[in-house]
Design a protein that fits this description.
By secondary structure, the protein is α+β, with helices and mostly antiparallel strands. 25% of the residues lie in helices and 20% in strands.
Length: 634
């Protein structure tokens, strides 16, 4: 849960939260109520919500601890946009057109996450929130001062319109908000979300992530007199209520956001010390190599470096030597997850877990790490890698209490063996691993004939396609291919464009893809979208693997309905073990830091947020003195 402004609408970010199959018949229930006046009596109003335990910040808090309240306002920053864009409408982002980078700077949510707490949110558009003790409903009270950029107030009708628009037109949000069975106006500034049952403690916070759109604007006409349609892509700059608005743009090339000087929320505790740049400019490049050259030429200010090879060998240009460009790594503490080769188990050839397990023995990670990554990565061994939620060793007492009722429904290794990946790194180990993989294939009904791995009954060679949409992953697939071929598997590699790739994913038309599932520190309803049986046949879900397992469904429910943090950790670890021992994926590798490079013309707080990695550009600022020494680059 908790999509940040920075991560929303990236494919990996959508993966953080899609919860699964949408509940049919909801839209008829989500209508404004006629009642006006004060909200119905209920639990006390509070400044925010915490998933477990108390909020860190009191009702009268002035700011988050990790910001600089005296940060100067001004300057500009040039950020990288990759690919292209042809859409400003967040409602259809992810499945119609290409959404513009940074568009969520324009909008606000009901509440904002604190980057120094595991799972807490504080009022943004909403000044306060109340929820029932059994988590069956939550009411958000909007701030009287909340305004759109045209001066009109943000209203409950805007919230209801936004929810209905997203629910009806976005497969992602249709799934994410599936548990909301009623949304109504219950006071002059109050909206109440009613959920489909008690005990799901995450739901009051999930609805706080709703990006609120202006009903009056979307139901009005554009400058050509044509009615707007929230279900379509648009390049008309949208009306928002956030700290920035679109200043200018060239479709597919650049988009510039300007800080709204009269922004209504600039003095809110959740906004003090944030949104400090006068301009945020995204410059688009279709190729990462060209983008890196642009950064070196001081055409971009900030770069997050994903390539280990480039990080080690590429930053030897004069500006780095002169310390005009700063390389810095920021620890990742706010998320974890699984990146992997993922199987489409809907296909008969991948239904046997022994076959899937054998594929892991064909990947020599240690050699790959040495040849391509300069030894920088660690192998992933958990779906919650990098967090306290990752299963280690054998299950402890709390995990066993969760797993025992499912003993006859999960792989026996869950109880007897700590999960580990094969280890390679030299020819002897690589050969041993291939032999182990072939033994698993033989147990699954395959045999070697004429150096080909064939089905013993049909004589058909096992053939797979490694499908991707990013050229950067071709070298990974090319490294993996010979190991599979040495086992007698026929391997083809195909890289296609984004649109084709998305269509094939939706149609579940693939053998093996490279994919990542991001995990927050408080997993919950999104797990149904990742691994739940209902989501396996829903095209918009993140259950690409096609998992349909009643035991996993039961474990997901244990995660969602955990009553405290200890229960959540135990249930998540139990889920992790069962996923691992089903061998749905061949795990990849991870680097638990953000690699960043920047031209040295920016300032940041002395105390960075513990769960916020680099938090750029949100809480950084333009440093005029540094810029004078480095050169403005403008």
């Amino acid at each position: 849960m908790f999509l940040t402004r920075r991560h929303l609408l990236r494919r990996s970010a959508l993966a953080l939260a899609a919860p699964g199959l949408a509940k049919s018949g909801l839209s008829a229930l989500v209508q404004p109520a006629a009642a006006q006046g004060a909200a119905a009596p209920g639990p006390a109003w509070r400044q925010g919500l915490s998933l477990f335990g108390d909020l860190k910040y009191p009702a009268d808090f002035k700011r988050f601890d990790y910001v600089n309240p005296d940060a100067p306002k001004g300057g500009s920053v040039r950020m990288l946009g990759l690919g292209t864009f042809d859409n400003f409408n967040v409602v259809v982002a992810g499945f119609k057109g290409q959404i513009a980078s940074g568009i969520t700077h324009v909008y606000e949510q009901l509440a904002a996450p604190a980057l120094d707490e595991v799972a807490s949110v504080y009022g943004l558009l909403a000044e306060s929130v109340s929820r029932t003790d059994d988590f069956s409903s939550a009411t958000y009270r909007l701030r009287a001062a909340a305004k759109w950029h045209d001066g009109q107030p943000v209203t409950p009708e805007d919230v209801i319109f936004s929810f209905n628009a997203l629910r009806a037109n976005s497969p992602f949000y249709g799934a994410y908000f599936r548990h909301v069975v009623k949304l109504e106006k219950t006071g002059e500034r109050d909206v109440t979300f009613t959920f489909d049952g008690p005990g799901n403690r995450e739901l009051p916070q999930i609805v706080s992530e709703l990006y609120v759109l202006p009903k009056h604007w979307w139901e009005g006409k554009d400058r050509n007199g044509k009615g707007r349609d929230v279900s379509l892509t648009t390049l008309e700059p949208p009306l928002g209520s956030g700290p920035y608005r679109i200043k200018s743009f060239e479709p597919g090339r650049t988009i510039v956001y300007e800080r709204v000087k009269e922004y209504w929320g600039k003095d809110l505790p959740v906004r003090i010390g944030s949104d400090n740049f006068d301009e945020i400019r995204y410059i688009y490049f279709r190729d990462t190599t060209v983008a890196f050259e642009a950064f070196k030429a001081d055409q971009l200010d900030w770069r997050t470096q994903d390539s280990a090879q480039t990080w080690v060998t590429g930053y030897n240009f004069p500006a780095v030597t002169a310390k005009r460009v700063i390389k810095e790594e920021f620890p990742i503490r706010n998320s974890g997850g699984m990146q992997c080769f993922a199987f489409n188990t809907r296909r008969d050839k991948f239904k046997d877990p022994r076959v899937r397990h054998a594929f892991n023995f064909a990947l020599d990670f240690e050699e790959l790490n040495k040849q391509l990554f300069y030894g920088q990565y660690e192998r992933i061994n958990s779906y919650f890698y990098g967090t306290e939620l990752a299963a280690t060793g054998l299950p402890g007492p709390q995990e066993l209490a969760v797993l025992e009722p499912l003993r006859d429904k999960v792989p026996p290794e869950v109880f007897t063996t700590a999960y580990s990946n094969p280890v390679g790194g030299n020819p002897t180990l690589a050969r041993d691993n291939l032999r182990a993989g072939l033994r698993l294939m033989q147990q699954a009904g395959y045999e070697i004939r004429d150096q080909k791995l064939v089905d013993a009954k049909t004589g058909t060679q096992l053939a797979v396609e490694l499908l991707g949409d990013e050229p950067v992953f071709e070298r990974i697939n090319l490294f993996y291919k010979p190991g599979l071929e040495r086992m007698g598997i026929a391997v083809s590699i195909r890289t296609i464009d984004d649109a084709q790739y998305e269509n094939r994913l939706r149609n579940r038309d693939f053998d093996i893809i490279i994919h990542s599932w991001g995990e927050s520190l408080s997993p919950g309803n999104e797990q149904r979208g990742y691994w739940g049986s209902a989501a396996a046949d829903q095209p918009a879900s993140q259950n690409y693997i096609g998992v349909k397992d009643p035991a996993i469904d039961a474990l997901i429910d244990r995660v969602i309905f955990a009553k405290n943090r200890d229960e959540l950790v135990a249930a998540t670890k139990a889920l992790d073990r069962v996923l691992l021992w089903n061998h749905y994926v061949v795990p990849h590798w991870s680097y638990r830091k953000v690699r960043s490079a920047r031209w040295d013309r920016f300032g940041r707080p002395d105390k960075m947020p513990y769960y916020g990695d680099d938090a750029f550009p949100t809480i950084w600022w333009w440093d005029a003195d540094k810029a004078a020494k480095t050169g403005s680059g403008r």
